[in-house]
Amino acid sequence: MTNHKTVTREMFDDVMVPNYAPGKIIPVRGEGSKLWDQDGNEFIDFAGGIAVNVLGHAHPALVDALKNQGEKLWHLSNVLANEPAIRLAQRLTDLTFAEKVFYANSGAEANEAALKLARRYAWEKFPAEKNNGIEKNEIIAFNNSFHGRTLFTVSVGGQAKYREGFEPVPGGISHVDFNDLDALAAKISDKTCAVIMEPIEGEGGIIPATQAFIEGVRALCDKHNALLIFDEVQTGVGRTGALYAYMNYGVTPDILTTAKALGGGFPIGAMLTTTEIAKSLVIGTHGSTYGGNPLACAVSEAVINIIANPEVLNGVKEKNKLFVDGLNTINEKYQIFDEVRSAGLLIGAALNEKWQGKAKDFLNAAQLEQVMVLVAGPSVVRFTPSLVIDNEEIKEGLARFERAVAKVVS
Q: Subunit arrangement (predicted)?
């Protein structure tokens, strides 16, 4: 029997597990970089579903792809292949270093697959009896990193708050400081099967790896026969002005994970790697019921076909300047940021000492001024809008954000 009760925000608290604390409004419609709530109020979206809505809301090409595929095939088990999955994999391998693709439903699942593959690859290629008796299964990650919410990925992520209450966690995992090559050199050994890193730490505060650091990590992995995994769940699919951030650095990983923007809002994740490494995932070693389903892959193919256009990627770099210049202008008036860190349209405005821990205050105030922003930890305001957001919408959204700042600091 259908329940025709009017949906309210209070109903969320009644029926949902309390691990989220969403805002007071309920959006019901989106178009491009604008959202409308139940009362018809318009919001400019600088959040993008946390770097997901890479082409904004209800992009016509994505809507068409979903409708067209929805009239053909929704789901096939992995006992059978499907055309959209094959086409998308071909596109991803043509555009990147990769030769093989594994599909999942999310970034956490893509990272789970990458970490499992790294351990299995080391187990096959460097068994203890051929590796001076050394078990090669240790994983090194970085403090303040974030790699997902499964038990394995939350253990690899470098933020203890996400592991609290879920111990004991899987072993063989250690953490060192990001951008500290000496610390990694002291930790890595022939026991290490993989190093996993975000080229730009996202949840940790929008902190880019330095060129010297990322090159040094690659060299240390090569020295110790460890795989280098790039978690590009947030930095991928054009977010930084390159299709994937590794291209900006000129450093190629052995495994790359991608999700979020990959489906433009439709759930899909993928792990990309080489033919040689992929050989370790033989039949029966890993799988995903919905991974590679025709609906998700059809939408993702439409996303990639648009984002891979040089005009779009160059536009990301131009829009970055509008954002950064606008935020710096706001800061000149209100003195709230230490710095504005950015790569393309992944932007973090780090609050200064006076405003430490107050990022959520700015988010809440912005919502009242009808602009949606994010936080990256307690002291960084984060912006991850659509990559094709109109320049006038950037200006209007920043004007609304300035009004929010003025109210917080008053």
A: Homodimer.
Does the annotation flag 174 for ligand binding? no
Cβ contact 255:39 at 8 Å:
no
Nearest to 114 by CA among 134, 94, 100: 100
What backbone phi and psi angles, to 5 degrees, belong to 258?
A: -145, 145
- pTM flag (> 0.90): yes
- pLDDT for 3 beyond 80: no
Cβ-contact 258, 233 below 8 angstroms = yes
Q: Find, among 157, 145, 115, 48, the residue nearest to 257 by Cα.
A: 115
- Is 231 annotated among the ligand-binding residues? yes
The average pLDDT across 372-380 equals: 97
What's the CA gap between 351 and 357, in Å, rounded? 8
| Per-residue pLDDT at 4 exceeds 70 | no
Residue 233 annotated as part of some ligand binding site: yes
Does 124 belong to an annotated binding site?
no
- The sheet with strand 42-45 has its strands ordered as 27-31, 34-37, 42-45, 371-372
Q: What angle do CA 346, 368, 410 make, to 5 degrees?
A: 90
Rg (CA), the chain: 22
Within 10 angstroms of residue 313's Cβ, the number of other Cβ atoms is 18
Instruction: For residue 241, give the DSSP letter.
Output: S
What is residue 1's predicted lDDT score, i.e. its pLDDT?
A: 39
Convert the pLDDT of each residue in 129-168 to its tens digit.
877 778 999 999 999 999 999 999 999 999 999 999 999 9
Check whether 288 is labelled as a binding-site residue.
yes
Q: Which residue has the tokens 């053909």?
A: 72
Domains (range + CATH), the chain? 9-59+310-409 (3.90.1150.10), 73-307 (3.40.640.10)
Place of tokens 């990147």: 96
What is the DSSP secondary structure assignment for residue 32, as one 8-state letter?
A: B
Distance between CA atoms of residues 372 and 72, nearest Å: 36
Whether 177 has a binding-site annotation, put simply, is no
Question: Does the annotation place 120 within a ligand binding site?
Answer: no
Indicate the pairing of strand 200-201 with strand 207-208. Answer: antiparallel
d(CA 211, CA 218): 11
CA angle 311, 341, 246 (to 5 degrees): 55
- Is position 146 annotated in a ligand binding site? yes
* pLDDT per position as a tens digit, 257-275: 999 999 999 999 999 999 9
DSSP, collapsed to helix, strand or coil, labels residue 214 as: helix
